[in-house]
Amino acid sequence: MTPHIVFRTGRRTAALLVLLLQLFVLPAVAQEVIRVTGKVTSKEKQVVLFGVNVTDKPTGRVVATTDEDGRFAVDVRSNTTLRFSMIGAKPCLVKVSNRNYLEVQMEEEDVFLNEAVVAAKRITDKVTPEPTDIEIHGNYLVVKTRVRVPREMFDRDTRLVTQPFISIPSRDTLVLMRPLVYDGKEYNRTQDRLYNFQMDKKPEGDPLAEYVTIKSKATREEGRKNDIIGYIDSIYIENIDPNTDYRCDMPMAIENYHRILYRDTTTIARGTVNPLRWLDYSFASSEMTDSTYFPRPEVQLRDSRGEVNFRFPVGKSKFDVNDPQNAAEVDKLRQQLELIAQTKDATLQALTMHGISSPEGRYTSNLSLSQRRLDFALNYLQSQVPEEMRRGMKFQSKAQVAPWSEVSRLMHADSLNAEADQVDAIIKRYANIDQQGAAIRRLPFYGKTILTRYLPQLRRVGYEMNYSVFRQLTLEEIQALYAKDYRQLSRFEFFKLYRAQNDSTEREKIIRQALEMYPSFMTAANDLQSILITRHKPEAALLAPFAGERAPQVVNTNHIIALLASGRYAQADSVAAFVPDNEQTHLLLAVNAVLNGRYEENFNTVAQTGRRNELVMLLAMKRNKEALELSKELPDNEALSHYLRATCLNRMDRPVEADVELKKAIQMDPSLKEIAHIDGDVNDLLEEKEKTQN
């Protein structure tokens, strides 16, 4: 059965894909019909099946094919029988029986057609695509081949449809390539005449029209009776892996207007031709060194709180500034102001006075008196603040009357529970604070306990001074704050903390926490990538949000290194456009260009890094004779030297010598055998050996 299939979009549209691996067969004259839709799945694997032929059995016409979601839609007679068929599955018949929706399950079957019957004559010839290679150019897999069509298999009113696909077993995916359609001279003309079908009309016409080659003298192979059609296409792979087992298969089918005459599938390529898999390069990562991009210490808000105890005459709103107690309180506040003024880079922003009066009098009178006392105190203190500190400051006051519940709370705290319960009962009985006060004043313990002991505790005047300070915390202070809660750290504090950390594991942990709190922290992301590159485990996506035209060189170069390591060559090439070619970047840019297929202009730069790299470059440029001569200079004590000689010899059609060199390479390094199986330059040597052994 077919594995899970991944389809490319863009120029290969979903509408076109419905026709892949299938033949374009058109219905004849319409009859009385109903609309039938449905879905086809694998019975064993419960996956949708793409490219299933849906045939109207009584007429023998293919009326639909399933799309990438396994769905189909047909207009057929209500009592007809539909036949479902595809390569790798047992055909099945389903009666419509006036149903508008069908759920169809197909069973697996190994099917390989190697012959077909045309005009009652058995044909042993086959449509033969030439074996080829899958070449890697950057992030593209390139396939070039030719398809031979025997003359006796192909008439003027037939059509050949083929579409190669790349299978990637390690990812359980198939990637479809461009279709190739080969038509007999009369195929399209007859369709138009018989069925009044305008083949060239879009979108109602032939969806495969742009891929059609018409049989002509130009398609006849010189010196032979068969026709030959050239084919070339490439597909983009996001993160290409040179050591992945890629395979290219080519399904083919020939049909006329009514039925499929021939069907076969051939594997035309196994493994990839990619000598750059042996290119030896590595690049050192770099932390951010440009202090322009370092985070700066940030302004931090601080505040200072306290209480003052001014002595006011009974019922008066002004206090005597010469009273020793009042003078001491004023001096206490003045010292606090001086401390802030002496703090480097500190700015006083606000002074707020808040006072609470006891509730024994009438509420409105208590509140008014408390507010007047606060205003007086605030105005006096404002006059004590130096003029240069008063600029931009906000001065405010707020008065309130303490509720009787505060008296109850204090009494409970002192274990006077019985007395406190009586106060609570009054509070519960009366909602008005003045009514509460009148009732509480009648309690037998009011004068001795409440008035003298607890009400004074409620009379408080407090202050709050808010100021900002521009100060760098010491490393010890940052460490203490980090241990308490890393989320409290600023960018600068994270930066200072992880830069002081010598252990790379701990440094990585701190940086990831910094990026959690500050995702746009470019310096931290770059420094993390530097750590990962050193470990040979870069993350391709880490610097993607920052790299580009405006990014510093170190960010772009680290990002390129990470992209190349993950096989994202095209993306690396896009970033390289923003990197200046200088002493630090020249080799990196050259390697990037080579991995993206630009060999000639970068040959000298890469070749100068070593004999092996020079040989690899010659192979990439298909200068095989020069490569073979250079391979003789490689050290014989290295397995890869023999492997590369085998590659050169095999390309020069000297398979016996190539086999000897490959055996030496594998004997010295058995792991090379696994690579050789997926290397299009030498895997044929292994295949021939395995055939001989079998």
Describe the SSE topology:
Blueprint: H1 14-17, E1 34-42, E2 53-56, E3 61-65, E4 71-76, E5 81-85, E6 92-95, E7 101-106, E8 116-118, E9 121-123, E10 128-129, E11 134-137, E12 140-149, E13 159-162, E14 165-168, E15 173-176, E16 180-183, H2 187-195, E17 212-214, E18 227-236, E19 247-255, E20 260-270, E21 272-273, E22 300-308, H3 324-342, E23 346-357, H4 363-384, H5 387-390, E24 394-401, H6 404-413, H7 417-429, H8 433-441, H9 446-458, E25 460-469, H10 475-484, H11 491-499, H12 504-517, H13 522-534, H14 553-565, H15 569-576, H16 586-595, H17 603-607, H18 611-620, H19 624-631, H20 639-651, H21 655-668, H22 672-677, H23 683-693
Parallel strand pairs: 1-7, 11-21, 16-17, 23-24
Antiparallel strand pairs: 1-4, 2-3, 2-5, 5-6, 8-9, 10-12, 11-12, 12-18, 13-16, 13-19, 14-15, 14-19, 19-20, 22-25, 23-25
| Helix/strand/pairing category | alpha+beta
**CATH H-level superfamily title of the largest domain:** OmpA-like domain
CATH classification class of the largest domain: Alpha Beta
Roughly what fraction of the amino acids lie in strands?
A: 15-25%
For the record, the count of structural domains works out to 5
Distance, first to last CA: 27 Å
**What is the fold-level CATH name, i.e. the topology of the largest domain?**
60s Ribosomal Protein L30, Chain: A
CATH hierarchy: architecture of the largest domain: 2-Layer Sandwich
Over the alpha carbons, how many angstroms does the gyration radius reach?
43 Å
Annotation field: number of helices: 23
> Major sheet, described briefly?
7 strands, mixed
Instruction: Provide mean pLDDT, rounded.
Output: 83
Report the uncertain regions: 1-31, 110-124, 192-197
Number of strands: 25
Helical content (DSSP H or I, runs of 4+): 25-40%
